[in-house]
Please model this.
Amino acid sequence: MEADRKLPEVREKEDAHRLGTIEALSWRATVARLFLSAALVVLGLYLLANYLRALAWALVLAVALWPLYDQVRGKLSPRAGKNILPVFFTAVVGLAVFISVATLVVDLACELRDLIDYGRQAERSGIATPDFITHLPYVGEWVTNWWREHLSHAGWAKELIAKVNTSWLRELGANLGANVLHRGIIFGVSLLTLFFLFRHGESISAQCRTASQKLFGEQGERVALQMAASVHGTVAGLAFVAIGEGVLIGVVYFFTKLPHPILFAMATTVAAMILFAAGIAVGVAAIILLGVEGLGPAIIVALAGFAVIFLADHFVRPRLIGGTTKLPFLWVLLGILGGIERFQLLGLFLGPEIMAALTLLWRELAAPATDRNSSFDLSSRSNS
Model:
C-alpha cells in the first residue's frame, strides 16, 4: 500500500524532470537559433559592406518615388506595370543622374581647356604682374619682385615643373581612375537594386510588415510607416525645394550674366539640400559677379538669392518635412546635420528617418496606455 502511495509522487517527479529537460532543450535551441541568425546577419553585412550605401540609396529612392510609381502603375495594364514601368522609372533616375554629372563634367572640361590655353600662352610670353599686387601694403614690393623673377618671363612653367616632384600627379590620376570606376559600379548596383525594388515592392513591403509585427508587434509597423513618411517629407522638403531654389536662382544667374550659370545653378541646388549652405553658393556667385559685371548685378544676385533661400528655409521646408511626420524642426535639423556628418549626402535622408523613428518610440513610451495609437497614425493616410 505504501508503495502504491509513493508511485504517483514518483511519476510527478519524473514528469517534472522530463518537462524541465524539454524546456532546457527548447531554451538551448532558441539560443542556438539566435546565435546563428546573428552570425549570419553579421556575415552578410561584412560581405556587403562595400555596397551598403548603394542598397541604402536604392531603398531611399524607391520609398521616395513609390507614391508616383503606384499612381502611374494603376493607369497601366498589369503586364506593363510589372515589366515595363520598373524599367522606365529606373531609366529616368539613371538618366537624371547621368545628365547632371555629364553637364558638370563638360563644363569642367571647357574650363580646363581654357586654363590649358591660358597656361600655354603664359608659358610663351610670361604673366604680367597685376596692378593690385604692386599696391599691396607692406608686402607689395616683395611679392612684385618674386612675381617678376618666377612668372613674368617666358619658360617659367618648365622651370617650375622641373623643380616639382610630379610622381604624385601620376598616383593621383591612378587613384582618380580607380575611384571613378568604383563609383560607376556602385551606381550600377543602385540602379539594379532600384529596378527590383520597383518590380517586387509590394511583396517586399508585405514581408517587412510581417517581420516587424513578429519582432516588435504593432509598434514595429508604426515605426516603419513613420520612417517611410520621413523619407517622403525629406525628399519633398530637401530635394524638391532645393531644385526649386536652384531653378529660381539660376534664372537670376542667367539674366545677370554670371559665367556658367547652369553650372552655378547646379551647385546651388546641391548646396540647398544642406541647410544654410545655399547662402555660401549665392555669396560666391555674387563675389564673382562683382569682379566681372560690377556692383549692380552682384547686389541683385545677393538680394534675390537670399530672399529665395529665406522663404524656402523658414516657411516651405519646415512645413514639408516636419508636417508629414509631426517631427519638430529642431530634430529635423539635428538629424540632417548629424546624418551629413556620418553618412555624407546619404545622411540627408537617413538622418531624419532615424530621428523620426526615435521620436515615435519616445511618444509610444510617454503616451498614456489608452492613447498609444494616437501618437502617430499613418494607416488612415495610406488608405486615403
Notes: The radius of gyration is 31 Å. Residues 372-384 have pLDDT under 50 and may be disordered. Residues 215-365 form one domain.
